[in-house]
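Hey L., structure's done. Input below.
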Amino acid sequence: MTVIEANQTVLLGVVIVCAVAASVVLERWRFGKVLSSALIAMMLGMLLVNVRLIPDSAPFYGFIYSSLVPIALPLFLYEAEWKRVATEAGQLAKLFAAGAVGVLLGAMLAALIVDVGENSKDWASVFAASYVGGTVNFLSVATSLELPEKEIAVALAVDTIAGMTLLAFLLVLPVVKVIAGLFPQEIGSMGADALDPESRLMDSMAVKATSAAMGLAVSVTIYVLSRLVAQGIGGETYLTLIVTAITLVLANAYPQTMSKLRASYGLGVLIMLAFFFIVGVSANLHELRESGLDFVLFIATIIVCHLIAILSIARIFGFRLSEAIVVSCACAMGPTVAAGVAGSKRWINLVTPGIVLGIFGYATANFLGLALARTLGVLD
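Output:
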């Protein structure tokens, strides 16, 4: 039982708006700059759900994830160039491959050293699919392998907490000097649209309100069209890809017109902060405690191997830490999180490559997970 119930949409909306506003304000403080607004929003969500002020699931959360987040994506892409996107995505594919290999090796190691019951090797395959694709791949592979529903519920609860912990670590990583110093210095401006947070928010919300409103209107139109296309081809999973493709076509066909909508960028940041709040809400520690901690070490082994692989390759080949972080998000948590991190961190050039690589992960994760299941079965 929570103070605000799942059907009290207006109250939940007020809480989320206040949390987003608080994360923006707190980011201006010294500790806030270390944490970042995205992590602050996530921590607020986690706090409020665990003091039982708000529920861990509600229809309004689904609306934010399924509708507002796709609407936010075009707001980051109005000045994206085909050539730059292709170059960035091609280069970052090396990092994605490294992260995926790290996940597969970590899953195999976890199956050998961590005992989660008689289905340990099957769970290695499920988590491999999850950390190369996402939760959809987790459920798909778990169902294909006919794992017990009770175990699936426990594993999914732990997986949610583990994913949030990984995201928090990645968001803080740029301020860890020992690690950040190992990588090339970040470029001060990641594109013409990468302004500092305060300037961007002021620009979008006050100085150029008309431009921001037009940008939002175009984004909503793109979203509606993309959803119709997705429904027509029977592939809601590819909504993010369709939204991105349409926006890129417009941005490159009408560059001058679309660049005038750049003031709407700040609105995209605010929507993504609401998304990160929802990510934090999913980390219900009461549920985790009740379910047990059997899978924690198993997943931790996979995550550590993933991080070692992707950071090592980034260091060896001279990638920036920002690139490693966004690609790790794309690999382990999917295109939406990758775009959200890149957008909230003002790494604008990395938004589209993050989406592209995340969708590639969606498309290949089931194959990798089931292939690993067969391999482990042969070795057994």
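Confidence is low (pLDDT under 50) at residues 189-195, 197-207. The CA atoms of residues 206 and 212 lie 9 Å apart.

-- N.
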